[in-house]
Amino acid sequence: MLVALIVAAIATLGTLDSRIMGMTMIDRPLVMGTLVGLALGDLHQGIIIGASIELLSMGVVGIGAHSAPPDVTIGTALCTAFAITSGKGMEVALVLAIPISTFATSMRYLIAISLNHAWNQVALKKAAQGDTKAMERLQRLGAFNYGLYAFVVVFTGVMLGSPLFEYLIKVTPAFIIGGIKAAAGILPALGFALLMRLTLTKELSPFLFIGFIIVAFSGMSSVGVAIVGAILAALVWTMGSDSVKKEGTLNDNEI
Amino acid sequence: MTTRSDSIAINPAVEKITKKDLMKVFWRAFMLPCFMSMDRMQASGFAYAMIPIIKKLYKSKDKVSESCLRHFEVFNTTYAVAPFIMGIATAMEEQAAKDETFDVSMINTVKVALMGPLAGIGDTFFWGTFRIIAAGIGTSLALQGNVLGPILFLVLYNIPHFAVRYFGLMIGYKTGTQSLEKLISTGLITKASKVASVMGLTVIGGMIASMVKLEIAAVFQSGQTTLKIQDVLNQVCPCLLPLAATFFIYYLLKKGVKPGYIMLGVLAFGIAGKFLKIL
Questions:
Q1: Which of A8, A249, B192, B231 has its CA 20 to 30 A from that of B111?
Q2: Using CB atoms, which residue from B38, B143, B247 is nearest to A117?
Q3: Which helix (H) or strand (E) holds B222?
Q4: B41 part of contact set with chain A, CB < 8 Å
Q5: pLDDT digit of tens for each residue in chain A (255 aa)?
Q6: Cβ-defined contact of A183 to B271 (cutoff 8 Å)
Q7: Which residues in chain B touch residue A75, judged by CB atoms under 8 angstroms apart?
Q8: Cα A150 from Cα A190, distance rounded (Å)
Q9: Residue A193 and residue B250: Cβ atoms within 8 Å?
Q10: ipTM confidence score
C-alpha cells in the first residue's frame, strides 16, 4: 500500500514534468527508474532498470500533432517497482515495460485527454468573454487532470500488478527467461532504429558509421563519441559556410 | 517592410512591455502543454502565457477578449521553442495596441507560419541531438549503476534547454518579426539543424556498438578444430551483428511494420535462439 502510494507519487511528478515544468526529462525512464529505486531502497537496481528502459524507448517520443507514444514514464515507474519488490525478474520487467506503457497511453486518453478536451471548450467560452481569471483556473485544472491520471493508473497498477508479476516469474521456464534476456539485449536496436527514422538521411549517414566504427574498434566511451560528434559538427559548420560564401560572391558577380 | 510608422496616430497611453512582463511569460510558458485539446492543441497554454501581456496592453473588455481569442487559435510546436514565438507575438501585440491600424490578423499568420518549421528544428535539436547526447552519456554510466548517470543526463539536457527558452523569448521580443526573416535568409537555421543532426547521428552510431548486445554462441566443429563463429565475425568487424540488427529493424520500420510487432519478433527470436542454443 505504502509502496503503491510512493511509486504513484513519483510517476505523478514525472508526468507533470512535461506538463508544467517544460519537459526537463525528469519523465524519462532513466530518471523515473532512479527515483523509484531510491524510494524503494534499491537505488543500484533502479538506475540500471531505468537506463535499460531508456535505451529501448529511445525512439519513443511524442513528435507531431497526433502521435500517441507509449507512456514510458508510467511504464518505467511500474516495472521498476515490480522488479524491485519481487527481488528478481529485471529482464521480464524490461520486456513488459513497453506493453504496459502502451496500455497507460490508452488510459491517458480515457482520463486526462478527454477531460481536458471537454474543459477546453469551457475555456474557449471564457476567452470570448475576456475572463482571464477563469482561463488561468482552467489551465491549472488541466495539469491536475494529468496528475490524477498518473496517480490513479500507477497506484492501481502496483496494487494489482505486483502479485501477478511475481506469479509470472515463478511459472516462466528458465529457457524463456534466458531468451527474454537475449531479446532485452537486442531491443535497444529498435530504439535506435526509431531514432534513425527521425534523423537519418543519405547525405548524413556517414556520420552514423563514423560513430559506430570508433566505438566498435576502440571501445571509446560515450563522452568521447559525443566530443568526436561535436568536432565533426564544427567541421561541417565551417566547411558549409565556405560554400555558402562562395555561392554568395558568385551571385554578386552575376549581378 | 512595414515597421512602426510615425505617420499613423500612435496611442501613447499604452504601457511599455518590460523585462518583468517577459519573465511572467517565461514562467507561464512552462505550462504550455498542460491543458491540451484535441483540435486546438496547445492553444489554451499559449493564451495562458500571453495573459499578463494582454492585461497590460489592453484595458477595455472587448480588446482583452479579442486578444484572448486570437491566442486561442490552434497552436502546436516543440515546447522549448514556444517562448521564441511568444516573444514575437508579444512584440506584435504591443505594436497592435499602440497602432490602431495594425493588421492584427498578422499575429496569427506569423504564429502559424513559425510553429511548423520551428517544431521541425526544435525536434531535431532537442529530441535528435541534446537528448541523445545526454542519454548516451547518462545511460552508459547508469548501466554500471552509477548515480552520476541520471544526474548528468538531466544537467546536459537542461543547460541548452533553458538557454533556448530564455534567449528565444528575449530575442523573439527584441527583433519581432524581423528575427526569423533574418535567420532564414542567412540559411543559419537549416545549417544549424544539419550540424545538430551530425552530432546526434555520430552518438547514435556509437551507441549501436556499445549498447546493443547480440552475439552468436554457436560453435562450428569439424574434427579436432572448433571455430567460434562470433570470433570470426569479431575479426571482420566487432559489433557487426548489432549493426546488422539495427539496420534490419530500421528497414522493417521503413516498410511500415509496427514497432510493437518488431518487439514481439525480437522476443520470439531471443527465446528461439536460446532454445536452439544459437545465441
A1: B192
A2: B38
A3: strand B219-222
A4: yes
A5: 899 999 999 999 999 998 888 889 999 999 999 999 999 999 999 999 999 999 888 776 655 444 578 889 999 999 999 999 988 778 888 888 888 888 888 888 888 888 898 899 999 999 999 899 999 999 999 999 999 999 999 999 999 988 888 888 888 888 888 888 888 888 889 888 988 887 788 889 999 999 999 999 998 988 899 999 999 999 998 886 544 444 444 444 443
A6: yes
A7: none
A8: 26
A9: yes
A10: 0.84
Query: What contacts A227, CB < 8 A, 6 or more positions away?
Result: none
Q: Is B154 near chain A, with CB under 8 Å? A: yes
Of A45, A188, A226, the CB nearest to B133: A226
Handedness of CA B266, B272, B274, B279 (dihedral sign): negative
Question: Cβ B153–A28 below 8 Å, yes or no?
Answer: yes
CA distance A228 to A173: 45
Chain B residues 169-208 with a CB less than 8 Å from chain A? 187, 191, 194-208
Give the one of B135, B150, B245 whose C-beta lies nearest to A58's C-beta.
B135
Q: Helices (DSSP H) in chain A: which residue ranges?
A: 2-20, 29-39, 43-56, 72-86, 90-108, 114-128, 132-171, 174-186, 188-199, 205-218, 222-254
SS3 of B226, please? strand
Strand partners, B227: B220
Residue A197 has its nearest CB partner, among B158, B205, B253, at B253
Residues B112 and A167: their CA atoms lie apart, in Å, by 53
